[in-house]
Amino acid sequence: MGMAMIKARDELAAVIPYPLGPPPEAIQKELGFKRIIRMGDNENPYGASPLALEAAKRALENRSFYPDGTYSLLYQALGRYHGLPEGYFVAGNGSDEVIRLLTRAFISRENEAVMADCTFPRYKTNVLIEGGVPVEVPLKNGMHDLEGMLAKITSKTKMVFVCNPNNPTGTIVDKKDLIEFFKKIPENVLIVIDEAYVEYVTHGEMNDAKVILSQYQNAVILRTFSKIHGLAGLRVGYGMMDPKIGNELKKVRDVFNVNRIGAAAAAVSVNDSAFIDLSVKKNKIERAFVTERLEQMGYTVLPSQANFVFVLLKGPAKQAEAALAQKGIFVKGIVAPGYPSAMRVAFGTREENELLLEAIREYSVEGVM
Ligand SMILES: *Cc1c(COP(=O)(O)O)cnc(C)c1O
Q1: CATH of region 50-271, choose from 3.40.640.10, 3.30.450.40, 3.50.50.60, 3.20.20.140
Q2: Residue whose CA is at the smallest distance from ligand 1 atom 9
Q3: CB distance 196 to ligand 1 below 6 Å
Q4: Where is the Aminotransferase class I/classII large domain (predicted)?
Q5: Region 240-252: what's the mean pLDDT?
Q6: Is the pLDDT of residue 20 over 80?
Q7: Strand ranges (DSSP E) for the chain?
Q8: Ligand 1 neighbourhood includes 94 CB (under 6 angstroms)
Q9: Of the options 2.30.33.40, 3.40.120.10, 3.90.1150.10, 3.40.50.300, the CATH number for the domain spanning 21-47+274-366
């Protein structure tokens, strides 16, 4: 029995589902690898806070009950960490969801949103879903071109995204330049600063969330528990913003959008500075090590302040990605304006990084990458 084609909303014609290949676990099984090295999703190779895992286990005991939809304990913990009142926080099922809530609440058809090209792809997708217009400004020397972005702000602009450090390039924008940029953004434009990797920055100062929010009521700062906190599988992220903006997001969110286990783990992880500090320290050492070795092999890499590095390749990106996967090493091949072939590689443990470098050396000699 045939079914008539049901037409989806017009806006979706421009949207493609996020390209998900077979999961590393499936490839591991298929090729019979004893272990795999996950360097494609910027996860933390050192696990997660043991205190957070304890909290998650305790929360699992109450799995039959809905979470506290006010997320009060989480917001109190975040409030202590950031020095902000509870009302400044909106949690999401990953900060991916907070991006979705922002576009849902603020982007109407034909509103424009200015962003870098390339940057985190979810900004563009979510703007398109609402019928908005993504205005993409190419990176300049691998960094956000703030001047170029300002030049694109018009009466139609509703939102501007700055990913800092930027995914996938790992580059940061200067603290002072960012403030100068904020000053020039009209008050009726939402400034979204995505700080998914900010904890990893060790060079150059970052702006303090509390200071930014006290000076710019149109600013929103995004953070996640998926990266340095090592809780990607639990799906928790959050935004910090003036409560007036937050209240609009709360209108469009699902009531229990963050699960009980993730919320409990996050509330503890945020204040486990021992685990975070250790991760920062190890990452800094591995970042220097991998960068130096890649440069010795003749690769150009962008200066990273994150837990991954953007490497310019000599062969096609997809080919490099596939070749490394054949050795059980998962990275992200990237093709972007100005970067016809590149890959983003998250740093692993020293042992994992040695295996990565060995594989790259081999493929480099063969002319694969
Ligand atoms: C990983 C990432 C996120 C969101 O991650 P969630 O798992 O949804 O919290 C947001 N922004 C950037 C730039 C990221 O790299």
Answers
A1: 3.40.640.10
A2: 94
A3: yes
A4: 35-360
A5: 98
A6: yes
A7: 37-38, 89-92, 112-117, 133-138, 157-163, 190-194, 219-224, 237-241, 308-312, 329-330, 332-336, 339-346
A8: yes
A9: 3.90.1150.10
Residue nearest to atom 12 of ligand 1 (CA): 196
Mean pLDDT of the chain: 96
Tell me the torsion sign for CA atoms 19, 23, 26, 27.
positive
Q: Stretch 79-85: mean pLDDT, rounded?
A: 97
Residue 3 has pLDDT above 70, yes or no: no
Is the minimum distance from the CB of 96 to ligand 1 under 6 angstroms?
yes
**Two tokens at 257?**
């959008």
> Are 296 and 61 contacting, i.e. CB atoms less than 8 angstroms apart?
no
Q: Tell me which residue has its CA closest to atom 2 in ligand 1.
A: 196
With 60 as the cut, is the pLDDT of residue 1 above it? no
130 CA distance to ligand 1 middle (Å): 20
Residue 5 pLDDT: 85
